[in-house]
Design goal:
It is a single chain. The protein has a single domain, classed as Aminopeptidase (3-Layer(aba) Sandwich). The chain contains six helices and seven strands; from the N terminus they run ααβααβββαβαββ. The longest helix is centred in the first third of the chain and has 14 residues. The chain is globular, with a radius of gyration of 16 Å. The structure holds coenzyme A. The site of coenzyme A (COA) has 18 residues, from strand 4, helix 5 and helix 6. Coenzyme A (COA) binds next to strand 4, helix 5 and helix 6. Keywords: Transferase. One of its GO terms (molecular function) is acyltransferase activity, transferring groups other than amino-acyl groups.
Length: 184
């Protein structure tokens, strides 16, 4: 979801096949903790870049453009939304993150709303409920605000995921679709 920077600035240990059976999945989920990121030191930044790069594998037009870009982008996310930068951890290992901004001026809405600037789970850990845990934390944090995000037009999986949480497509800009979840 790298549009924002352009416009604003602008291995689970899965089985060998990469598939977790239900028992392994439950055991992984009990170990996943969602935490606010405390500091963006070099080691953490490198791990987040690694996740950002591999999460978007096969979808380079929408993210993971390159490591130096990712570094600038993630630092921007950290400076813009420290209090809403949540990570999913298994033990000490970060396996995913979501960046939630409670003070985003949307020029499309003409007012300040909540925003999700980035959302990614390590490819090896995708499909096991970690994204859901991160999204729930984000919705708890952004509470009663309207929330805006941009998603790649062909990123069907992410679009379906957002729809389940009440986001609706409200506009389009190039290859990007703008989705908004109106407060209830
Ligand atoms: C979008 C993303 C963050 C979701 O994280 P995740 O940990 O894979 O999500 P979950 O495991 O919680 O799955 C949530 C739902 O996604 C769908 N899903 C998960 N894995 C899937 C797969 N392999 N194929 C199709 N749908 C899948 C399912 O609907 C799933 O619901 P379920 O729990 O009923 O099975 C993650 O897939 C990702 O990093 N994608 C690449 C980056 C990206 O697109 N970010 C969003 C940009 S705006």
């Amino acid at each position: 979801m790298a549009l924002l920077i352009a416009t604003t600035f602008s291995t689970a240990q899965s089985s060998e096949s990469g598939f977790l059976n239900p028992t392994m999945r439950i055991s992984m989920m009990t170990k996943v903790k969602i935490e606010k990121l405390q500091k963006l030191d070099q080691e953490t930044l490198e791990r987040l870049i690694e996740i950002y790069m591999n999460a978007y594998e096969g979808m380079r037009e929408y993210g993971g453009e390159g490591e130096s870009y990712a570094k600038r982008y993630l630092r921007w996310c950290w400076s813009k939304a420290k209090d809403g930068f949540f990570v999913a951890k298994i033990g000490d290992k970060i396996v995913g993150f979501i960046v939630c901004d409670d003070d985003w001026y949307s020029r499309y809405e003409g007012r300040t709303v909540g925003a999700i600037h980035e959302f990614a789970v390590d490819k090896s850990y995708q499909g096991h409920g970690i994204g859901r845990k991160l999204m729930e934390k984000c919705l708890e944090y952004l509470g009663g605000k309207d929330i805006e995000l941009w998603v790649g037009e062909k990123n069907e999986r992410a679009k379906r995921f957002y729809e389940e949480y009440g986001f609706r497509e409200v506009g389009k800009h190039g290859i990007w679709v703008r989705m908004v979840r109106r407060k209830r």
